[in-house]
Fold this sequence. Notes:
Layout: E1 2-6, H1 13-20, E2 28-40, E3 46-64, H2 66-77, E4 82-86, E5 97-101, E6 109-112, H3 115-133, H4 142-161, E7 178-183, E8 192-200, E9 211-217, E10 220-228, E11 233-240, H5 242-246, E12 253-256, E13 258-261, H6 268-280, E14 286-293, E15 303-310, E16 319-321, E17 330-336, H7 337-346, H8 352-368
Parallel strand pairs: 1-5, 10-15
Antiparallel strand pairs: 1-3, 2-3, 2-6, 4-5, 7-8, 8-9, 10-11, 10-13, 11-12, 11-17, 14-15, 16-17
Amino acid sequence: xxxxxxxxxxxxxxxxxxxxxGAIPKPIAATLPxxxxxxxxxxxxxxxxxxxxxxxxxxxxxxxxxxxxxxxDLYEGAWGYTLAPTRVDAATPxxxxxxxxxxxxxxxxxxxxxxxDWQSEHEKPAVDxxxxxxxxxxxxxxxxxxxxxxxxxxRAWAKHRAVAAPQTRRYAPDPGDVAIHKLRPPVGNFxxxxxxxxxxxxxxxxxxxxxxxxxxxxxxAVILLPYDPVRDKVLLVEQVRMGPVIRRDPNPWMLExxxxxxxxxxxxxxxxxxxxxxxxxxxxxxxxxxxSYYPSPGGTTDYFYTYVGLCDLPMTETYLGGLSDxxxxxxxxxxxxxxxxxxxxSGEIATGPLFHLLYWxxxxxxxxxxxx
Length: 372
């Protein structure tokens, strides 16, 4: 058994439960002398900084089991945090208390850190990230955890981003109308395949037996069509795609819109502007929403935020784009709107989101010049 002082996000009982598992002891308020708490630059988690006049508030969880400590070691140790004995002050005398200390070469701290602010903005996605991590069997090693953490966080924020859409014609569900009875450990590293047993209410007022289903678990994505309303030109992206490769398409090089994942803590609009710069070297002047949707809700969690991005497209020749450090090998094709529409008819454009954006633009392009 071990007594652990926590000073950051693990003060959250919900996150501590998701990480440590088992029965979580009641926390005891305590303070850690000779340290102060700062926010890690470019992150939302805190860092302990040596400070002879400082004092950090936190809590102690007493009597954690070896299994719980092993889970905490993975969660903290993957980032270089190490378990060390420490001294804390509390109303209840405490001895042999430990704390996770950050690596000496940690990221530079930048400003104070607030548990209340983190809790209001980031707690729920953090809990979902931890739940996904510890749903794996076997658990990843620290290196694999670091490699896949970004995707786990992005999937958690996708759940956090989901909001109720209008239901003027659709069924209005009550809590419990859909029930997941069994989630099996997910398969995959970058993307996931999730198997489950699920039951749901029927339109006849009955309930299905538990049904075994499998779902491809992706992340939210932004898909954006750069458009120059002055020149009536669009910009298409060309790259090889693995779906057509596996389907044995004779030509797996696809024409698409600019696209990319929406990262954790990022808005779809910010992701669209970032991807336009990274993939195509284009600076957007205005983003016009063109609808958000599930491209294939029967078997994937993918959710697309789509936009037409107004910009200046003076280019006349095909050029190369993308980020080499992300293994992107892209060609960018500036072309007139009518030429792009002709490619939807010929079959050379065979990607659904680009179809959607071009036909949306066909309906709306007359009014888009007002935004420039």
